[in-house]
Amino acid sequence: QVQLVESGGGLVQTGGSLRLSCAASGRTFTTYAMGWFRQAPGKEREFVATIRWTTGSTLYANSVKGRFTISRDNAKNTVSLQMNSLKPEDSAVYYCAADRSITAITRWGTSPGLYDYWGQGTQVTVSS
């Protein structure tokens, strides 16, 4: 089992920044990649960014590329999402997720179905 706890959400004005953190505990050595997803009311959960745990390789959704940065701290078992130049359309509940499949080292996890564990989510609201 892997437990994930997000923090760092809140209310920010357009153009502002927030940093989300995700603390992982439990059998984290079985995790090969971590991802951030978001879900706005009435919409499906969508991919934001992912990072491979050992190499640090990253992939971003086009909508956040150049504004968001995903990073990990292997020693602390944490994954962060630095969000800059925030827009109202970035408002959503943000979730971190853990991918335990060894195939994650060769394929990108952009679909929620590829992830095994999820945090409870943290709300991000960007006011216009």
Written account of the structure:
The protein has 128 residues and is mainly β. It contains no helices and eleven strands. It has strands at 2-7, 10-13, 18-26, 33-39, 46-52, 58-60, 68-73, 78-83, 92-99, 117-118, 122-127. Strands 2, 4, 5, 6, 9, 10 and 11 form a seven-stranded mixed sheet that branches. Strands 1-3-8-7 form a four-stranded antiparallel sheet, with no helix packed on it. A hairpin with a 6-residue loop joins strand 4 (33-39) and strand 5. It is globular, with a radius of gyration of 14 Å. The termini are far apart.
Encode the helix/strand succession as letters: EEEEEEEEEEE
Question: Ranges with pLDDT <50 over ≥5 residues?
Answer: none
The number of helical elements comes to 0
Task: Sum up the overall morphology in one term.
Answer: globular
- What composes the largest sheet? 7 strands, mixed
Overall number of strands = 11
Q: Whole-number radius of gyration?
A: 14 Å
| N-to-C span | 40 Å
